[in-house]
């Protein structure tokens, strides 16, 4: 299929982009790896597509006292290749290199992945585990939300009319921090059927666990010390979250969570 007719608009400033998005049925697009297929399948029929890929504000990398703010238009490949600084011991590159295929990573963006809010996408789960925050700009001004507060459900976010993601703030983690990330796919590059990301940074007393590839938004456990130390309680956590109705999916999720926790011992440091 081909996309339904739409107007195309490329602007040079953030204020103009947010104003255009606030008018009528408009959608922003940067890398186009999520919106493009939806347009061609006519699952999305905006009246106007606003190209935000070249906005300087969305390409910046800004150091903050507690971490780094990444512009939303930075590509997966830029994280994979180490073209941007990493406030973690190599965790961002590890996640990025496992996203789909290199052709997708060359075009797809970190902000686009969050805005699409696919439960099976890598960045929403990994960034939720890392304690990242989404930086938003719109007609009402700027605001920041934790990833788990920004994503409301499957393909549903807290974006207000005219508001766009301008960046993602990733907290700085100590050199001793450990990160486990596992996902189950039928073959490389396909959407995950189960995924889990786990962060342990004892220096800052952080123990976070995020389960993705659910039917809704990611399940985030901000105080996950007990689950990490005693993986046998994962069954209770999955049941309490309503993720045990399908026995096969339950067993797969349980195994992926356990693998991610086990990976902390072997893959906590950068490759």
UniProtKB/TrEMBL annotation:
InterPro entries in the cross-refs? Diverse_Substr_Oxidored, FAD-bd_PCMH, FAD-bd_PCMH-like_sf, FAD-bd_PCMH_sub1, FAD-bd_PCMH_sub2, Mopterin_DH_FAD-bd
Q: Where are the transmembrane segments?
A: none
What one GO molecular function would you report for this record?
Answer: anaerobic carbon-monoxide dehydrogenase activity
What EC number(s) has UniProt assigned to this enzyme? 1.2.7.4
Q: Where is the FAD-binding PCMH-type domain?
A: 1-175
Q: What is this protein called?
A: Carbon-monoxide dehydrogenase medium subunit
Keyword list (alphabetical) reads: FAD, Flavoprotein, Oxidoreductase
* Broad enzyme group: oxidoreductase
Q: Tell me yes or no: is Metal-binding among this UniProt entry's keywords.
A: no
SUPFAM superfamilies, sorted: FAD-binding/transporter-associated domain-like (SSF56176)
Task: Quote any Pfam family the record assigns.
Answer: FAD_binding_5
